Every structure is written in C-alpha cells, then in structure tokens.
Amino acid sequence: MIKLAARVGLIGPVLFGSIVSILTILKYDFLLSLGWHPIKDPTFDWPSGLSLGEFGWIMTSTFLLSGLMMAIFASGLHLSLPRSPLTLVASLALTLAGFALAGLAFTTDPTLRSTPATWHGRLHDLSFVLLGLMLMPAMILLGFAFRQDTHWRSFSIPTWITVALALPTFWLKGAAFYVFLFAVLLWSGLAARRLNSLSN
Q1: Residues 149, 87: contact at Cβ < 8 Å?
Q2: 103 and 127 Cβ atoms separated by less than 8 Å
Q3: Is the pLDDT of residue 179 over 90?
Q4: CA–CA separation, 129 vs 120, rounded Å?
Q5: CA quadruple 114, 50, 60, 13: dihedral positive or negative?
Q6: Eight-class DSSP state of 36
Q7: Could you say which of 80, 113, 192, 199 has the lowest number of CB atoms within 10 Å?
Q8: DSSP track, 113-176
C-alpha cells in the first residue's frame, strides 16, 4: 500500500501540472473571453474555467483523478509514520483535502454570467473552500508528524517553508497564485519521492 501510494503521489502532481499547462495553452483565447488574464488576474476562473467549453471533460477528469490520488497518497503517509493522534489527524486532513480536490470535478459556473448559480457550481465553490481549509492545516500538522520519525524528520522544515510560501498568496492574489500552485505541487512530488525511497 505504501509503494502504491508513493507511485500515485509521484504521478499526481505531474499529471495535474501537465494537464493544466496544456489546456491553458490550448484554451488561451477561451480563458481570455471568461475574463481571465495570465498576469493581471490569473485566478479569475482559472484553473476551474478549463472544465468549461471544449476539452472541458479532460480538466474535470483531472480534478477527480488528482483528488483520489491525493487521498491514496495520504493513506501511504499515514502508514509510513509512527502511529499517533497527530499522524491520524494530519493524514485525515490531507485525505479530506484530496476529496475536496476531487469535488472540483463539479463543473464551475463562469463568474461573468447572466444566469443564476447552478447546484454544481455551488458544490464546486464549496469544494474549493474546503480544499483551502484542509490542505494548509494538513501540511502544518504533517510537519510536526514528520519530526516523530527519523526518516522524515528532515522533511518537516521544507514542509513548513512550503506553507510559508503558499499562505501569503491567498491575500496577495495576482501572479502570486502561481507560487502557491508550484510550491504545493513541488512539495507533493518531493514527499512522494521520499515515501517511495522508504518503501524500497
């Protein structure tokens, strides 16, 4: 299970980052029509807007698959760390973050629209809020959980540095959002790499 979780954890960030990058290039003009701008307003209907229009099903599938992969990865971390209430809460929070990421598969509503919000648009927004509420606390708690194990102890500081880089982007907005996305994906990949090395 740990080996499976490690492999899934390695694939997940690469898959998400690649799909988002490719679809952003392919749907650049469409995103601009939604009100998005890569520098001035990068979070305006992005990346959620990639699930709208042509090739939208690819982004929807990616949200769902990436979320399930995060939940599986969280179970591997739980099994690799010493059993404690801290480990349980930290891994549970990361699992819930994974389910919230999967919940982004509910198709978003365009921000600029003349129609009322849809049920799936509301569920998408709720999932986004839950993702933010679960992911950062999960990483902070994992930093403490890592300190309980000699194999993971050196990874606690990088985990907290990632949180320190990511948190301010919620207030700075703008292009800083790319820092958040890159930092979290990089942390996920490095954590999966560490887990994979421990499973061999």
Answers
A1: no
A2: yes
A3: no
A4: 14
A5: negative
A6: -
A7: 113
A8: -SSPPPHHHHHHHHHHHHHHHHHHHHHHHHHHHHTTSTTTGGGHHHHHHHHHHHTTHHHH-TTH
173, two tokens: 């907005």
Residue 41 pairs in a beta bridge with 37
Coil/strand/helix, residue 37: strand
27-79 residue pLDDT tens: 999 999 999 999 888 888 999 999 999 999 999 999 999 999 999 999 999 99
- Calpha distance 130→162 (Å, rounded): 19
Per-residue pLDDT tens for 107-124?
999 998 888 999 999 999
Q: Which domain holds residue 34?
A: 2-199
Which is nearest to 93 in space by CA: 80, 112, 77?
77
The structure's pTM equals 0.92
Total domains in the chain come to 1
CB-based contacts of 109-116 (< 8 A; 24+ apart in sequence): 110/34, 110/45, 110/49, 110/52, 111/34, 111/35, 111/44, 111/45, 112/34, 112/35
Cβ–Cβ < 8 Å for 195, 10: no
Q: How many CB atoms lie within 10 A of CB 81?
A: 21
pLDDT value at position 94? 97
124-176 pLDDT per residue, tens: 999 999 998 999 999 999 999 999 999 999 999 999 999 998 887 766 667 77
